[in-house]
Amino acid sequence: MIKTDILIIGAGPTGLFAVFEAGLLQLKCHLIDALPQAGGQCSEIYPKKPIYDIPGFPEVLAGDLVDNLMEQIKAFQPGFTLGERAETIEKQEDGSFIVTTNKGTKHHAPIVAIAGGLGSFEPRKPLLENLSKFEDNGVAYMIKDPEVYRNKKVVIAGGGDSALDWSIFLADVAAEVTLVHRRNEFRGALDSVEKVQQLKNAGKINLITPAEIVGLKGGDTLTAVEIKKTGEEENIVLEVDNFIALFGLSPKLGPIADWGLEIEKNAIKVNNALDYQTNIPGIYAIGDVNTYPGKLKLILCGFHEATLMCQSAYQKIYPDKKYVMKYTTVGGVSGFDGTKKEAPKAVVKAIE
């Protein structure tokens, strides 16, 4: 049986950063993830997608962010159970938990932090008659390697951040980028909407709104898409090499939904006024998997939640200890392996 201080379910960015914050408190972490590698969606779905809202990074690729987080936590020597899904949880008489995976691996910890992101997920697909025929033959629902689209004619459908961000990114990669959305208004960041408009004005992106893809054409591979523009009788037939439908993901909590946690709209309710604890003492939920009034599904918000969760976890594990919090600029960061990164002196703050 694997024993640890904090068992983290989900090895995405929020779960990885929780290892760092726990390490500062000299708490050991172990992570479980159904994917075969750490990083969550950032590694599995869009490692080459640029992220713009990480403090200190005007732009960072999702895969590079994961690499940086892995380097940041190396000194704290976290354990990983990868390629296995957390299946059941049993509360022990002492208040600790045993979590068993679908492959029978047992983990024992006084604290469980669920950082499962969107949980298990599958892409939302458009309702097109011959869609499955062209899957992996011109039709895709996510972008792992943008180089696949170099010098190709690409149509992207969607109105959220992913559709906007990839349209902007591929404008300098693909031979031609067309963005199709069923409304004139987009759901993404205003800055991204403005950039798309600028690229349209510069002739680097074709923008067709309000409209939707109504047909796919081709033999063994996709050669064209049929677009229905609102208010026009004749459809547009556009020659393309690739059609990327970015309509988001349908999240599912999976077995976690049966753990007795309070669920609201497929997310775990937490007390954000204190420490992001669930209705079960000792079980926390951080990152996109949780919900509370005013919740924003941003990586940086997950980092904040992970930090407060670890402070609370320390007090639960060591209720009789007083912890003196030092900023990481005080004396550096000491790892479990004895390594230490030196840093300049700063302010010390005590938590009574």
**What about the largest sheet?**
5 strands, parallel
Mean pLDDT: 89
Q: Supply the CATH superfamily name of the largest domain.
A: FAD/NAD(P)-binding domain
User: What is the quaternary state of this protein?
Assistant: single chain
Low-confidence stretches: 342-352
Shape: elongated
Report the CATH architecture of the largest domain.
3-Layer(bba) Sandwich
Proportion of residues in helical segments: 10-25%
CATH topology of the largest domain: FAD/NAD(P)-binding domain
Describe this structure in words.
The chain has 352 residues and is α/β, with parallel strands linked by helices. It folds into 2 domains: 2-121 and 250-321, FAD/NAD(P)-binding domain; 125-247, FAD/NAD(P)-binding domain, CATH 3.50.50.60. The protein has 7 helices and 28 strands. The protein has helices at residues 13-24, 41-44, 62-73, 131-134, 161-170, 190-201, 299-317, and strands at residues 2-3, 6-9, 29-33, 50-51, 60-61, 79-82, 86-91, 97-101, 106-109, 111-114, 120-123, 139-140, 153-157, 176-180, 206-208, 211-218, 222-229, 236-239, 242-245, 249-252, 263-264, 267-269, 283-285, 290-291, 324-326, 333-334, 340-341, 348-350. It has a 5-stranded parallel beta sheet, covered by helices on one side. A 5-stranded parallel beta sheet has the order 12-19-13-14-15, covered by helices on one side. A 4-stranded mixed beta sheet has the order 1-9-8-7, with no helix packed on it. Helix 5 runs parallel beside helix 6. It starts with a strand and ends with a strand.
